[in-house]
């Protein structure tokens, strides 16, 4: 199951399915619906996702849920795709606090977030080919974008497990912190997000994703200028500039 709570402008999501926080179709559907609910709540500026306990972020799919049943497997993988695409395309900033093993669908969940913080003991892998499967929760598409084709092939095609420091070196995560400090660091980043114009951040995230999604550069540059002008139709643009000139903290309305 996915536990969640809201503190200020940040939603906290916890994968809680002992002993290894594995995914089920039900928990994936729950994640998809929760992201939709948070998207509709304009007071949410960021979300932090982590795993319950100190050993696992998530060990991935619960293989017993489908084993060799093609019908169940099709349903399961559709749930993976819907949940993680929803997470990728969330209006708000998403941050993964990787507090242990992130394997298979666990790592794919992390790859679907905007920012990844790993605790020093974390281990990451996409071992699906070792059991006759392949990463299909967006993993084969997101990993090369983040770390390059060479490392993506090394991780997926040789079943190499990556530790936190290697993940940092290759760009898979943005920071490594001591064990037990991942959630605190992710919360700190979420609080920084809350100091920015929510609509500006939303537009920036969409523009950054344009490059990932193959939007031609001239079209992306034109849209960048268009979005800049779109901000002038909202009160937060004037508030942000005025607050800066008056040397005070902006009060965002996110209207």
Which range does the strand content fall in? 15-25%
Ends distance: 33 Å
Radius of gyration: 19 Å
Number of strands: 10
User: What is the second-level CATH architecture of the largest domain?
Assistant: Alpha-Beta Complex
Q: Order of strands across the biggest sheet?
A: 1-2-3-5-7-10
The whole-number mean of residue pLDDT values reads: 95
Helix and strand succession? EEHEEHEEHEEHHEHEHHHH
Give the class-level CATH name of the largest domain: Alpha Beta
CATH superfamily of the largest domain: 2-enoyl-CoA Hydratase, Chain A, domain 1
General form: globular
How many discrete domains? 2
Briefly note the CATH topology name of the largest domain: 2-enoyl-CoA Hydratase, Chain A, domain 1
Structure description:
There is one protein chain. The strands form two sheets. Strands 1-2-3-5-7-10 form a six-stranded mixed β-sheet, with helices on both faces. It has a four-stranded mixed β-sheet with strand order 4-6-8-9. The protein is globular, with a radius of gyration of 19 Å. The model has no long low-confidence stretch (mean pLDDT 95). It has ten helices and ten strands. It is α/β, with parallel strands linked by helices. It folds into two domains: 192 residues, 2-enoyl-CoA Hydratase, Chain A, domain 1 (Alpha-Beta Complex), CATH 3.90.226.10; 48 residues, Lyase 2-enoyl-coa Hydratase, Chain  A, domain 2 (Orthogonal Bundle), CATH 1.10.12. Strand 1 and strand 2 form a beta hairpin. The protein starts with a strand and ends in a 10-residue tail after the last helix.
């Amino acid at each position: 199951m996915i536990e969640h709570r809201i503190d200020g402008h940040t939603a906290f999501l916890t994968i809680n399915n002992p002993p290894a926080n594995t995914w089920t179709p039900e928990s994936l559907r729950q994640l998809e619906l929760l992201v939709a609910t948070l998207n509709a709540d304009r007071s949410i500026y960021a979300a932090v996702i982590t795993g319950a306990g100190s050993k696992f972020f998530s060990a991935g799919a619960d293989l017993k849920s489908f084993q060799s049943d093609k019908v169940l497997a099709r349903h399961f993988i559709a749930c993976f795709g819907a949940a993680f695409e929803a997470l990728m395309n969330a209006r708000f900033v998403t941050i993964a606090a990787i507090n242990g093993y992130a394997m298979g669908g666990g790592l794919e969940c992390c790859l679907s977030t905007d920012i990844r913080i790993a605790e020093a003991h974390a281990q990451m892998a996409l071992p699906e080919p070792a059991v006759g499967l392949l990463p299909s929760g967006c993993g084969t598409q997101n990993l090369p974008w983040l770390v390059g084709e060479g490392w993506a092939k090394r991780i997926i095609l040789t079943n190499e497990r990556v530790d936190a420091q290697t993940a940092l070196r290759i760009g898979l995560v943005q920071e490594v912190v001591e064990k037990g400090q991942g959630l605190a660091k992710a919360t700190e980043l979420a609080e920084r997000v809350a100091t920015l114009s929510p609509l500006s951040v939303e537009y920036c995230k969409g523009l950054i994703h344009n490059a990932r999604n193959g939007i031609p550069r001239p079209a992306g540059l034109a849209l960048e200028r268009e979005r800049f002008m779109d901000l002038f139709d909202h009160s937060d643009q004037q508030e942000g500039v005025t607050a800066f000139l008056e040397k005070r903290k902006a009060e965002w309305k996110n209207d």
